[in-house]
Amino acid sequence: MKTKQLQQFFKATITALSIAAASSVSAQAADEIVAIVDNNVILRSDLAHSISEFKDRFANNNQNVPEQFIAQQALEQLILREAQLEQVKKYNVNTDERALNEAISNIAKQNGFASIADFQKKLDAQEPGSYESLRYQVAEDIAINNLRQQIVMSRIKISDQDINNFLKTPQGQAALGTQAHLIHIKVSGENAQKSAQQISEALKSNDVNNVKNQFTNATTKVSVNDLGYRNLTDIPNELAAQVSSLQVGQSSTPILVQGDYHILKLIDLKSGDQKALVPQYQTRHILIQPSEVVTPDNAKQMIDSIYNRLQAGEDFATLASTFSNDPGSARDGGSLGWVNLGVMVPEFEEKMKTTPVGKYTQPFQTQFGWHILEVTDTRQQDMTKEYQKNIARQILGERQFDSELDNWLREVRNNAYVDIKDPYLNSKLN
To answer: Which residues form the PpiC domain (predicted)?
Structure first.
C-alpha cells in the first residue's frame, strides 16, 4: 500500500477524536438525505462533517474560500467515495483484519495513545459507538485502496521494451547507481560552434589533449576537465541526457549551454556496486495428499511407510516417481529444480532452509498434504539484472499510476447514478 495514498485516506481520521462529535450529529432523527449515489445515500450530517474538514484544511493553509465552493468540494468528495464503495461491493473486495488493526493502531499512536484499547475507551467515553464508527470508516478506506490497486495496476501496461528503454535513460541509470567516467570539453569564443563541431569529429581518432592543443587559439578557448567517475544524477540534465546514448570511447555532439559548447567523451561506464545475490535451493520432494479415497490417517501412514523405505536405503527418485501425488515433479523423480525463497508455503520453506545438503526431512504437513523434502544443493544466484528490471518496472508503474487512477476515478464518477436532493446543492454541482 503506497504511503502517499495512506496519508490521503487517513488524513481525516488522524484527528479521530472529532468523530465522536460527528457521530452525535448523524444520530439525529431529523437527519435528511441530500444525495443518492447508486444504492447508497449521503446524509445532511455527512455533508456537514465533510464541510467542516474542508474548512479546517483551507484555514490551515490560510486560504479564504467561498462557502459555495467548500460545499461543492465536500459533496463531490462524498459522492466519489460512495461511488467507489459501490465498486468495492461489485468486486467483492474485503479488508484484511491484520491490515485494519495495524491502521487503527497507527491512528491511535498518532493521537497519543499507547494501545488500541486506550484509544477505544477514550472515543467511546466521549460518544458511545465512536470507535466502531471509526473502525468501519477505516475498513472502507482500506477496501477502496485495495480496489484502486487492483483496478489501476491491471490497466498499467509496461513492456520489456519500455523497461529496456528506461534503463538506458539518465533516470534509469541513476536508479541503478550507474557511474560514468567522463571527459568534459568546453569550447568558447568567437568560432566556438565551428570549432566544437570539428573537435567532436576529431575526438574519434585523436587524444583529448592533442585536440585541445590543436584547436585552442586567439579567438577560441578549449578547456578539458577529467570528471572521473560520476553518478549521472550529479551531472546537469542537459549533459546527462547525452551520456545515456554513448558507447564507451564515443563523444557527444556539441551541446549549447549558456553560450558555450560542451562535449562529453565517455571513457568508461560501470554499474552500481549493489548486487542482488539470492539464495536458491535445489530440492525434490514426495507428496501424499488426502483425497476422497485416501483418508488423512491413510495419507499419514503412507508417508511414514515411504520414509521408512528411504531410511532402509531405497532410492528417493524412484519412490517419488512411484508414489508422489505431485505429477509435475514426480515425472522427474520429485525434482522441483532451483527454488527461490518466498515461492513455497511457509512450512515447506522453513524445512528447505534448515535441511543440510544431501539430507531429507522427516514427514511434515502443509495445506497440500504430507511431504518428505530433500535438499540436493544450494547456491547464491546473481539476480542483479532481474532486480534492475523490477526497479525499472516499479518506477514506470508509479509514473503511470496517478494518471491511470485519475482516469478510473472519472469513469467511476461518470458511471455512477447520482441524484442530488437539495436544490441549492444541485444548482451548484450539476
So the answer is: 177-268, 278-377
